[in-house]
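User: For a benchmark we're assembling, each entry needs the component sequences followed by a predicted structure for the full assembly. Here are entry 17's components. Please fill in the structure.
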Amino acid sequence: MKRALILSALALTTAVSLSACNIAKKSDEKAQQGPPAGGPPPPPPYQMRAEVADKDRLAPTSDGATLFSHRCGACHLTFGMGTNLITARQIAAQQKPVPLLADRTDLAADYVKAVARNGKGAMPRQTKVDVTDAELDKIAAYLGKGK
Ligand code: HEC
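Assistant: Structure for entry 17:
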């Protein structure tokens, strides 16, 4: 009698752990299928911030793209909190998302400078230590694409 009880307890434990395995396997398969249809697009590959030439910050020699990547990239390159939040806002406004500031065609240089110096929403204002006027001029010209 005792033996039968032990055996059935053993069988029950095995059955329970096997079904738990099955559940884990199913969720693994689901994760590999990627996000559900209609979800956000997959992000572009991971980006590293560019290095800037270690010279006079009041007369920078690096170009606007490099300066932008270095000074603003922690938030505005792929996976940055600025990129993520801007994407979320664009999706909420039912716009086609353009997550990276560098890909935008609607930014004017003066607007970029105003946002950088005053901040906007969740973006903290950038002081002249974070980004000098000379650096910001080049960054704004780069993001504004001549506007
Ligand atoms: C600490 C993170 C952080 C840094 C550093 C940062 N930003 Fe931002 N930026 C954000 C966030 C977050 C937003 C979105 C704000 C919101 O909508 O609430 C934003 C928004 C912006 C916008 C407005 C975009 C729009 O659609 O109106 C511009 C322009 C911008 N940033 C430029 C810059 C520039 C230029 C720099 C570098 C000098 C910079 N940012 C540095 C976090 C940052």
